[in-house]
Design brief:
TIM Barrel, two-stranded antiparallel ribbon
Length: 260
């Protein structure tokens, strides 16, 4: 599978595009439709759209909005937020989305299995949100408010066994910090499962994305890298050039060849 570089777009309750820091302090960064159009022009690999408040507010997915976003999106689009069952998923795929991202529902193996059985494993991504605690790494749900007893490796393995097709590994502690991924975390989880792993949480520049791929991620995702510029976090929608991405992939291939 070709390594992918994926912008993550966060929607708040008012349908605005925001960027968080450690899952809090949401900052408005633009209109989601305008941002998707910019990413269309930059020919990004895919886009992940997450409604960050849907589960907390016990809202069903806004299929009308999803359909509008998908109609503007020229690249594959995944969606997460408020998805709890096959009944939620059917209209989302009908709206033009390729994959659903399960947050709270991703801790429920019967939900994963039912969606995978109906639509195929390739259509199901399980989001593993995690943070460090006194007991070590633990996963969390509901925007980090509820910490579970599961560590990220255990949850990723449960998701794999239930039929998920991809893991979205999200580091809450580094969300929006732009200081780099936790490479040890990526390496540990990616080696524990056979599924493709998309890393998010901590990247702020191109070299961080390359480091994430070398650590074992099949895809690297970020919000801050693609919406903020400079120390003052000025809003600027950007994406690595085709030459930069190809250089990153070539470096990864060279590293793999050397390891053999």
């Amino acid at each position: 599978m070709r390594p992918r570089v994926v912008p993550v777009l966060l929607l708040d309750s008012r349908r605005r595009l925001v960027k968080t820091r450690r899952f809090g302090e949401p900052v408005y960064v633009g209109d989601p439709f305008n941002v998707i159009r910019i990413f269309n022009e930059k020919e990004v690999d895919e886009i992940c759209v997450l409604d960050i408040n849907a589960s907390l507010e016990q809202r069903r997915p806004d299929v009308g909005l999803i359909r509008e976003l998908a109609s503007e999106c020229f690249m594959p689009m995944s969606y997460g937020g408020g998805v709890t069952s096959v009944a939620d998923v059917s209209p989302i795929f009908a709206a033009g989305v390729e994959k659903v991202v399960l947050g709270r529902a991703g801790t429920q193996t019967h939900v994963i299995r039912s969606i995978a059985d109906e639509f195929g494993s390739q259509a199901v991504t399980v989001c593993v949100d995690c943070k460090r605690t006194q007991e070590g790494w633990r996963t969390a749900i509901d925007r980090g408010r509820v910490v579970t007893d599961l560590d990220p490796i255990k949850l990723a393995q449960m998701a794999e066994a239930a039929g998920a097709g991809e893991i979205l590994l999200q580091n809450i502690d580094r969300d929006g910090e732009r200081s780099a991924y936790d490479l040890a975390l990526i390496s540990d989880v990616s080696r524990a499962v056979e599924l493709p792993l998309m890393a998010v949480g901590g990247a702020g520049e191109l070299r961080h994305l390359a480091e994430g791929l070398r650590a074992g991620a099949s895809a690297v995702a970020s919000g801050s890298t693609f919406v903020f510029y400079g120390r003052l976090r000025a809003v600027l929608i950007t994406y690595p050039s085709a030459a930069d991405i190809e250089q990153m992939r070539a470096s990864l291939r060279e590293g793999a060849d050397a390891a053999e």
